[in-house]
Design goal:
The complex is a heterotetramer, with 2 copies of chain A (about 325 residues) and 2 copies of chain B (about 325 residues).
Chain A: H1 5-30, H2 45-53, E1 60-62, H3 68-74, H4 78-85, H5 118-133, E2 139-144, H6 151-162, E3 167-173, E4 176-177, E5 180-181, H7 182-185, E6 202-206, H8 210-228, E7 231-236, H9 254-261, H10 265-275, H11 281-304
Parallel strand pairs in A: 1-2, 2-3, 3-7, 6-7
Antiparallel strand pairs in A: 4-5
Chain B: E1 3-7, H1 8-22, E2 26-30, H2 46-50, E3 55-57, H3 62-73, E4 78-82, H4 89-100, H5 103-106, E5 116-121, H6 136-140, E6 146-148, H7 153-165, E7 170-175, E8 182-186, E9 199-202, E10 207-211, H8 215-228, E11 233-237, E12 240-242, H9 246-256, E13 259-266, H10 271-280, E14 293-297, H11 306-312, H12 316-328
Parallel strand pairs in B: 2-3, 2-4, 4-5, 5-7, 6-7, 10-11, 10-13, 13-14
Antiparallel strand pairs in B: 1-8, 6-12, 9-11
Helix pairs in contact in B: 1-7, 3-4, 8-12
The chains are: A alpha/beta (about 325), B alpha/beta (about 325).
Bound molecules: thiamine diphosphate (TPP) (2 copies) and magnesium ion (MG) (2 copies).
């Protein structure tokens, strides 16, 4: 299916939403207005958004600690995401989850995860449900390069392969697991090569190219939806910010960061649409404005939302 | 109630099978549970009845077994998964404690994780330190999990059914030494042993013993022995270890004025402390004629040699001595 | 003793560094501990001083971190390894509990496993359910492990040194909220806080409070507050949680006749039960004027929202109320 | 280094010792004379013995639950092995370990392990010690095919690779993990291919050929000893007996078992020595007799050894 203009504009919208959202998050943190920590995905918007958008409406997604672009890409409501970040009652988790646990199981969002690699096994289980219940849905499991050294990666890909489960393991390789560069945490060039250990396809893509991301995931979803089993995709990308709120970034050079900033996935998508005459500068400016407005509204919504009542602390431990 | 005599092991299988017949969303997976019928032969025949879609052998991968159960449970199935030995839950603790147990709360009450993890536990089989542990105390320290353990075949059937029907992650601890124990089991398919209700296994007036699992049998023998000497023992089996029905226990202790907790797990950090402290800090304190005693496994890894292994766990004589001790005060 | 003021965090680094200078077989590994200096900046500078052979970044692989520490310890090194957050020990429990802890015993006393696992624990940082747990009770239920936790900078330095010198696997629990707390620390390189010795942090005559870690500070505030009202509180910090110096605690309770255990970890299955039960079943029972109380974290996963998070852990007022409660009887 | 006659005869001796030992173990179990369970390696003697013999004297070995051939191959004392099996005070673990935990750290034997895959991380740690202390020793880590699906396999091979540790991961692929055949527990033909995930060499060998086993391990030890990092070897073999003492073996055919019995590694080594005129029938018969005698003596030693005193139950928890 060729990418429609509508889809592309929506993608552009969500990528901008994600960017604006995270810039705002950074702003909140810099002012000590938010409790806890956060992991920004600025620079990874194509990887997080375009991948989710390539799914069908009812497909499932499991996100990571660096999950804002992912959940915004999935289409969760920016108001409730922002409210959750601020720990408000109206947030997706009623303030109990925060940045690292934004989730909406009802719509198929299995949640961001504070455990590196925590989403692998959950995704395998969710894919088992889809297979068993014959829903025709697939699971997109986000993970980072560093997480592929966890035992859970290995166990999960192996089991998914044997059971031919409808799950896409989608690795956002942003070159670092926290401060540890990929050449220090593994002895191979492409993580996609690890697919061979499980007899499944492994694909490397440019994670900063929204079009390539979209088309690859679309095909992968087809593949796994048709019963051919899981697939491993490595999306090469880069995070512009530090690992989390406090990171001196001694492990990388300013030049490297600048180099990647030049590969801005949002600008790139914009350029693509203009060069291919899909949309005009004005149209795109308008989309950006809309995204900015959406963010403003979300912030307003969140700030004006009530704090959860302290008595709710003991609610919802058990069903 | 119509009854049939069967073993603890068969009762668990029966309970699982009935629930799988009743609800097609109940599936079962683990290592060698299919054709092999499980390391203890517990699930023999289930593959034949339910087929490969519902009785699924896994690779030796405990972490993903637990995590996949959580993921499947959160998305519409009611999986039963098995750790071949409870000791291997050490490999699955992240998925069990950080994912399955916390998902609902972390997500503001929106997830439901109706899974059962079966955990064969305990020593006495000569399997040495890595195949004999009783780790229920760990699990009871994880809000979001429920922890249950049957001590008779009837309980085993009714409790596994209740666990499967429960909408939360339930750790179902089985006692390997009880697998071959026989008892009458209700054949009624609606027979359920509800979670969170302690069972007064034997009434008495002088001392309350709280115990569960394999060692409960020794407690019963000791209780009968001292009865002949005029000491009347009330025995309470909590069945659900977390969240525990402590009220029934407290009521019993208020009546008897004395309490002993007996378990097989290592004493330090074991549930004995939890139960003893709960009794002592309750209104039963004012009725206590003696301190609450704990009788538990030694603080050692379980040794292989038969005599050493037996020495780790309290025997009937030690239980009787504990009874004498609280009575003599 | 010559002293220098420094933070808890710096004191741990100093203790590690001194031991690494003293004994070249001490090495240190974990995730992002080198150039990054650890998630909390605790080990900043250690890579520079000791080099890549001794300060080693690992991939994100908690299981092998723990297992490699055990293997290295059994073969001549004295590794310190780090779980970035205590919550991640869930991934390493097999290697910690089934391998490191049991090796010596299983092998008939022939192995020696002198390793230290550092475990930053506790809530109050807004990091939500998977980054805030206090799991010391699990570790104290594993015979073969030792479990220690310092509550002051001085203790932190002396205790990490003792842990490194100990010939057994020692779990060293650090309290994230204490990292920036300052205090006087002996600069003497032979200053050691021995394992297995409780510290009477404050003498008193009316009630004994047993507590450790971050919450001990609240206990001290509460103790000082009620002192003004004429209630004299003795505060005991066990420091070593397993095997615990319970004698010092029992002696204190015999003197005061009242005891309260306060910790941050979830109440059910927490160490409070263990300590309370140990007191009650000791000779201190006859001296008790009130039941031993436990004050602990709520049985919930830790929520993100600041107010909710704060509500999980007992505050100064609750501690004071507990004191009033035991005094009014 | 060519295999000397002396080495070959010693190998033949230990393989026979292992076979006789395990036949005796089966006999003990059939009579209920032993507590617990056991996992026999009959049929895997070349894999277990020849590999250990290819090591240098001070190299280290980590064994598995199916470890009798491995520890006998390593050169542990048959008397004390047998005594441990019977839970006696004179056993390697003073009766505390039993069949699944025979160990002798002093001589470099890091112990059999009751946890499938439990030896991987321990071996990585032991190899780290060798590297750090510059001992020039290497670690031979035994494991089974089924164990390579554990997360610990993945984490351990990756770490060993990054740190270039002197360790050989030696997988005895006997086609089954308990009842689960390899094609049901993984989706690839050769486990050795998993080496690619870690950028290390992966080699498949015929585990029933003692000569090939010996020569491969010798070369691998050289490789890893010289600082080139770890290596993964897959040794294809077969267990003749059931998984453990109670196993109806419904998961495999009698024919398959017979087929593999025809590939008896002991007979094969014997044939090799005779065909290559390395040793005569008489010499080899004599070696077999010596092995039988050694076993008889070991059994006698074990049976006559005292039980550990019950008071020792609390000894040796801590150093
Ligand atoms: C099990 C576990 N180990 C360690 C951490 C701490 N941690 C959080 S994010 C992170 C880096 C993850 O790297 P990667 O998977 O590449 O994802 P990225 O952060 O680059 O998106 C680490 C080490 C954690 N949260 N969970
Ligand atoms: C962590 C763990 N999971 C499961 C088991 C139970 N178990 C013991 S041996 C075994 C099969 C192991 O298969 P493999 O690694 O191929 O070794 P083999 O028995 O074939 O030698 C299993 C499942 C165990 N001991 N440890
Ligand atoms: Mg990364
Ligand atoms: Mg095998």
């Amino acid at each position: 299916m060729a990418l429609t203009k509508e889809t592309l504009l929506e993608m552009y919208f969500r990528m901008n939403e994600a960017r604006f959202f995270e810039e705002k998050v950074a702003w909140f943190f810099a002012r000590g207005m938010v409790h806890g920590t956060t992991h920004l995905s600025i620079g990874q918007e194509a990887s997080g958004v375009a991948s989710c958008m390539a799914l069908k409406k009812c497909d499932l997604v499991s996100a990571t600690h660096r999950g804002h672009s992912q959940v915004i890409g999935f289409g969760l409501d920016l108001n409730r995401i922002t409210a959750e970040l601020l720990g408000k009652e109206t947030g997706y988790c009623k303030g109990k989850g925060g940045s690292m646990h934004i989730a909406d199981i009802d719509s198929g969002n299995l949640g961001a995860n504070g455990i590196v690699g925590g989403g692998y096994a959950i995704s395998v289980g969710a894919a088992l449900s889809q297979q068993y219940l014959k829903t025709g849905r697939v699971v997109l499991c986000f993970a980072g390069d560093g997480s592929t050294n966890e035992g859970s990666f290995h166990e999960s890909l192996n089991l998914a392969s044997i059971w031919k489960l409808p799950v896409i393991f989608y690795i956002e390789n942003n070159l670092y697991g926290m401060s540890t560069s990929i050449d220090k945490h593994m002895n191979i060039k492409d993580i996609a090569d690890r697919a061979k250990s499980y007899g499944i396809p492994g694909i490397v893509i440019d994670g900063n190219d929204a079009i390539e991301v979209y088309e690859t995931i679309e095909k992968a979803a087809e593949h796994t939806r048709s019963g051919k089993g899981p697939i491993l995709i490595e999306s090469k990308t880069y995070r512009w910010s530090g690992h989390s709120k406090s990171d001196a970034q001694a492990y990388r050079t300013k030049e490297e960061v600048e180099e990647w900033k030049a590969k801005d996935p949002i600008k790139r998508l914009r350029k693509y649409m203009i060069e291919n005459e899909i949309a005009s500068e004005e149209e795109l400016n308008k989309v950006e404005e809309n995204a900015a407005t959406a963010l403003e509204e979300a912030v307003e919504f969140a700030i004006n939302s009530p704090e959860p009542k302290v008595e709710t602390v003991t609610d919802d431990v058990y069903a | 109630m119509e009854m049939k005599e069967m073993t603890y092991k068969d009762a668990i299988r029966l309970g699982m099978s009935e629930e799988m017949r009743r609800d097609k969303n109940v599936i079962f997976f683990g290592e060698d549970i299919g054709l092999y019928g499980g390391a203890f032969g517990l699930s023999v025949g289930m593959l034949d009845e339910f087929g490969e879609d519902r009785v699924k052998d896994t690779p030796i991968s405990e972490a993903v077994i637990a995590g996949a159960a959580a993921g499947a449970a959160a998305t519409g199935l009611r999986p039963i998964c098995e750790m071949m030995f409870m000791d291997f839950v050490t490999i699955a603790m992240d998925n069990l404690a950080n994912q399955a147990a916390k998902m609902r709360y972390m997500f503001g009450g929106k997830a439901k994780v109706p899974m059962v993890m079966r955990l064969p536990a305990g020593s006495g089989t000569g399997a040495a330190a890595q195949h004999t542990q009783s780790l229920e105390a760990w699990l009871c320290h994880v809000p979001g999990l429920k922890v249950v353990t049957p001590s008779t075949p009837a309980q085993a059937k009714g409790l596994i059914k209740a666990a499967i029907r429960d909408d939360n992650p339930v750790c179902f601890i089985e006692h390997k030494l009880l697998y071959k124990e026989k008892g009458d089991v209700p054949i009624d398919e609606d027979y359920i042993v509800p979670l969170g209700v302690s069972d007064i296994k034997k009434e008495g007036t002088d001392v309350t013993i709280i115990s569960y699992g394999t060692i409960l049998q020794k407690v019963m023998i000791a209780a009968q022995d001292v009865e002949k000497e005029g000491i009347s023992v009330e025995v309470v089996d909590p069945i659900t270890l977390y969240p525990m029905d402590i009220e029934t226990i407290i009521k019993s202790v208020k009546k008897t004025g004395r309490a002993i907790v007996v378990h097989e797990a290592a004493k330090t950090g074991g549930l004995g402390g939890e139960i003893a402290a709960s009794i002592t800090e309750s209104e039963a304190f004012d009725y206590l004629d003696a301190p609450v005693l704990r009788l538990a496994g030694l603080d050692v890894p379980i040794p292989y040699n038969r005599n050493l292994e037996a020495a780790v766990v309290p025997g009937v004589d030690e239980i009787k001595n504990a009874i004498y001790k609280v009575m003599n005060r």
